[in-house]
Write a structure and sequence with these properties.
Number of helices: 1
Largest sheet: 5 strands, antiparallel
Number of strands: 9
Distance between the termini: 32 Å
Number of domains: 2
Low-confidence stretches: 1-9
Shape: elongated
Mean pLDDT: 83
Radius of gyration: 18 Å
Length: 145
């Protein structure tokens, strides 16, 4: 039987190719660093409360350990050295949870540098940056080769 020594350096050599593919397709295994066509992916649900740094529930991460921090009111950074290639990084953020009653809220995600992605959250009516607007807000970062 054909076996793979590794997929992304993390699969035990005792598993067959068929088992590895089945587990990947069915989601019944946790393989890290697996990349399709060299694509690196980070998908997470981000929550931020008070003046604390945001926290993330990683759903998928083949990029690496991303550090989340609060810079100032309504401004947050996701940092990983040399992870976010210029002109090859796709960013997406979902809707906010409506924490402020009777107002419109907005989240923006943008490439800042090869090391940093910045998220801002704001009360659009007052156009002021605001904290505590993200509760399980979906974020996606794709880095193409």
């Amino acid at each position: 039987m054909t076996t793979l020594a590794s997929v992304g350096g993390r699969v035990p050599p005792s598993q067959s190719l068929a088992t590895i593919l089945k587990n990947l397709l069915l989601g019944s295994a946790n393989y890290t660093d697996v990349k399709l066509n060299g694509l690196k992916t980070y998908r997470a649900l981000i929550t931020q409360a008070g003046t604390a740094a945001p926290t993330a529930k990683a759903l998928e991460n083949t990029i690496g350990v991303i550090v989340l921090a609060r810079g100032s009111q309504g401004t947050y950074t996701l940092t990983l050295s040399a992870a976010f290639t210029a002109d090859k990084t796709f960013l997406s953020i979902g809707n906010l949870d409506g924490a402020l009653t009777g107002t419109v809220e907005q989240a923006k995600i943008e490439w800042t540098s090869a090391n940093v992605i910045t998220i801002t959250t704001a009360d659009v009516q007052g156009t002021s940056l605001a904290d505590a607007l993200m509760t399980d807000t979906p974020v996606e970062i794709l880095v193409y080769p």
